[in-house]
Amino acid sequence: MIILKQINKFFETEEVQTQALKNINLEVQEGEFIAIMGPSGCGKSTLLNVIGLLESPSSGNYLLDGDEVANFKESQRTNLRKGNIGFVFQNFHLINQLTVSENIALPLAYLDLNKSDRKKKVEEVLDRLKISHRRDHYPQQLSGGQQQRVGICRAVVSNPKLILADEPTGNLDSKNGKEVMELLTELNKQGATIIMVTHSQRDANYAHRVISLLDGEIVTEVENEIELF
Ligand code: ADP
Ligand code: MG
């Protein structure tokens, strides 16, 4: 369960101060699937990064499963993320020196698994996202859409209970995008909480609730007619 109370986030550079998040109040129940929408620059990625413990808020409270984590140090945030939070990054963040399989296996390093179980889990997601034939390739040998799918494989391979996805279908054609949304829906039905940033109304229709941001503020929240599992 995620509770954000009066969250503000400022970015300061030498000349300008930007307020990326303004007074965000948001509760997300376990097992919910949330879509975040809004124009470019309105704070969607910043909100996801705060929820995913990649950024600290400048002020406000963040309760994650009952713990106040807003002021956690980097090392505490890293520990909490391990194996628990799967992140699909807007610009992939794949490691160029590692193969597709090795990139996907990274989150499994935190789990107590033997080598063959690790391999099995990697193969399962490779198959599921139809990228097995690229398992030994390096990220720069792949198209944007393929890199996106590798990023999604890495985010879900450890069965995290919280999946955060920043425009997961942004680089995919309509058919591949639909497959990714079906995968996210299936993981949600199996119990994962999902928070996804999207520009696509089609993707947003898969969510229980759609939150619109404008200029760092939540302006609307709309419930879709989908039952919470
Ligand atoms: P979105 O994902 O909705 O496009 P972002 O959350 O990336 O928006 O950015 C929100 C605002 O914060 C923008 O004005 C952006 O320029 C600014 N911003 C985001 N990250 C940083 C950063 N690391 N340093 C300075 N400004 C930032
Ligand atoms: Mg963004």
UniProtKB/TrEMBL annotation:
Q: Which residues form the ABC transporter domain?
A: 2-228
A GO cellular component annotation here is: plasma membrane
In terms of Gene3D superfamilies, this protein maps to: P-loop containing nucleotide triphosphate hydrolases
Q: Which PROSITE patterns match?
A: ABC_TRANSPORTER_1, ABC_TRANSPORTER_2
- RNA-binding: present as a keyword of the record? no
Xref: Pfam families: ABC_tran
InterPro entries reported in the protein's UniProt record: AAA+_ATPase, ABC_transporter-like_ATP-bd, ABC_transporter-like_CS, ABC_transpr_LolD-like, MacB-like_ATP-bd, P-loop_NTPase
Q: Which GO terms describe its molecular function?
A: ATP binding; ATP hydrolysis activity; transmembrane transporter activity
Question: Does the keyword Phosphoprotein feature in the UniProt annotation?
Answer: no
Keywords, alphabetical: ATP-binding, Nucleotide-binding, Transport
Protein family: Belongs to the ABC transporter superfamily. Macrolide exporter (TC 3.A.1.122) family.
Q: What name goes with this protein?
A: ABC transporter ATP-binding protein
Species assigned in the record:
Flammeovirga pectinis
